[in-house]
Write a structure and sequence with these properties.
CATH architecture of chain A: 3-Layer(aba) Sandwich
Largest sheet of chain B: none
Radius of gyration of chain B: 19 Å
Strand content of chain B: under 5%
Structural class of chain A: alpha/beta
Largest interface: A-B, 24 and 23 residues
Helix content of chain B: over 70%
Shape of chain A: globular
Number of domains of chain B: 1
Structural class of chain B: mainly alpha
Number of domains of chain A: 1
CATH superfamily of chain A: P-loop containing nucleotide triphosphate hydrolases
Shape of chain B: globular
Radius of gyration of chain A: 17 Å
Order of helices and strands of chain B: HHHHHHHH
Number of helices of chain A: 6
Strand order of the largest sheet of chain A: 5-6-7-3-8
Order of helices and strands of chain A: EEEHEEHHHEHEHE
CATH class of chain A: Alpha Beta
Oligomer: heterodimer
Largest sheet of chain A: 5 strands, parallel
Number of strands of chain B: 0
Chain lengths: 199, 233
């Protein structure tokens, strides 16, 4: 599904990481762990095509639908959850069935608040709204940056369950976290950023 | 043939969705429109006090004030409209979905154009009430639209570049002046001519120049923003 060779990235002359090779197939959860500042977000943005790497190459299979869930919720604060979803579906051109959307809303506990503005939600609810947004296009590969940070145990469990269900439907995920315990437990493959950081 | 017409239809649909989103967000908060209208109204009222009726060369002075107020209002509007996408980084998602940079640029320019038209209508109404300025010739509407298109595209180009680079808003004001000077000179002259029922042939030449500037800035803006987004990656 995705193959990368010899990725490296520097900012202002400081090498963040180098020599990263990775390969992610169908129905895979690929974990990326590392401390703060180790370059997890940068690597995820390279995989999602948001920024370019300094060296190496990254190849995605044709016609792959990719979505990204970042640190920031990337949603319009004055729009409701539904309005955000409608807008991003319109511009991406993809949307899962109403039934699947309903199931995810239910699983994330957002069913009763989908018409609320993002600015009226708590931090955890915003995070879940972003998750819902990222899942709504039905991506083949979902790139998730620290999806479990600031989530309560119940929400972490329900999100993990959703990932496992989608994995059975041939979907793949790249998940970054500084919590090796959580990511390690759900990943098929694990990359430790510290192995690629310049010492 | 079908494939390319499908692509054009999709681009138009995305342009519509992006513009609709901007306007919906703006009309919901009214933050940019209100700030701009209050700013414009304050300046018009201050000039009304400073230049009492009957002053010599009133028309010339008013023609200049109208467009200078409009220029600075456009800076507030374009910054507000661009920040809608940069504040929570939703621009990254928009670009990730493969939206063409020229479609993004055109949609932003269209949103700024619509909001600016509302502000412009308010400015002209204020001038009518406070300075008894009236235009017999409807060509002024065409001039206002053409100037608005150009100023919208210029402020969007410079706004994206300055906001994405975290440059101070003051720099945007400085950058925008040399680019908008041709518009302002043309618009001031035409406004002055029309308010005095001046020579229509002279006005037509200025209108052709405004059309040419609009095309130049819309085309170069589309290309420039595309190159900038690529370099930024």
């Amino acid at each position: 599904m995705i193959k990368a060779n010899n990725l490296s990235k520097s900012f202002n002359g400081n090498r963040i990481f180098s020599g990263i090779d990775l390969s992610i197939g169908k129905s895979t959860v690929f974990g990326i762990v590392g401390n703060n500042g180790s370059g997890k977000t940068t690597l995820l943005k390279i995989i999602a095509g948001l920024i370019n790497s300094d060296t190496g190459s990254i190849k995605l299979n044709e016609n792959i639908k990719l979505d990204f869930l970042g640190h920031e919720n990337m949603l319009y604060q004055n729009f409701s959850i539904l309005e955000n979803i409608d807008f991003f579906s319109d511009i991406s051109g993809f949307r899962i069935s109403a039934e699947s959307q309903d199931n995810i809303e239910q699983a994330l506990g957002l069913k009763n608040i989908v018409k609320k503005k993002i600015s009226e939600l708590s931090y955890g609810q915003r995070k879940k709204a972003s998750m819902l947004r990222s899942l709504i296009s039905g991506p083949d590969l979902l790139v998730l940056d620290e999806p479990f940070s600031n989530l309560d145990c119940e929400s972490t469990d329900s999100f993990t369950t959703i990932l496992k269900t989608l994995k059975k439907e041939n979907k793949s995920f790249v998940i970054s976290s500084n919590r090796k315990d959580i990511v390690g437990s759900i990943s098929d493959d694990l990359l430790n950023m510290e192995d690629f950081n310049e010492s | 043939m079908n494939h390319s017409s499908d692509n054009i239809m999709r681009d138009i649909k995305i342009l519509y969705s992006l513009t609709k989103k901007d306007l919906k967000l703006e009309f919901r908060s009214l933050s940019t429109i209100l700030i701009t209208i209050v700013f414009a109204a304050l300046i018009v009222v201050l000039f009304n006090i400073a230049f009492p009726f009957g002053v010599a060369q009133k028309n010339e002075i008013i023609s200049i004030i109208i467009w200078v107020v409009f220029l600075f209002s456009s800076l507030i509007v374009s910054s507000g409209m661009i920040e809608l996408d940069t504040k929570d980084n939703s621009l990254e998602l928009i670009l990730m979905y493969g939206i063409k940079s020229e479609i993004y640029f055109l949609s932003k320019s269209l949103s700024v154009f619509i909001i600016l038209s509302i502000v412009q209508l308010t400015i002209f109404s204020l001038f009518y009430v406070l300075f008894q300025l009236s235009f017999q010739n409807p060509i002024i509407i065409l001039v206002a639209i053409l100037t608005n298109i150009g100023i919208s595209s210029i402020t969007v180009i410079l706004g994206i570049l300055s906001i994405r680079n975290n440059l101070n808003q003051n720099i945007l004001s400085i950058l925008v002046i040399p680019f908008t000077l041709p518009y302002l000179l043309g618009a001031v002259e035409v406004t002055n001519q029309l308010s005095q029922a001046g020579n229509i042939n002279y006005v037509l030449n200025s209108i052709y120049a405004l059309v040419a500037f609009d095309l130049i800035f819309l085309i170069t803006g589309s290309i420039l923003i595309g190159v900038y987004f690529k370099l930024e990656k």
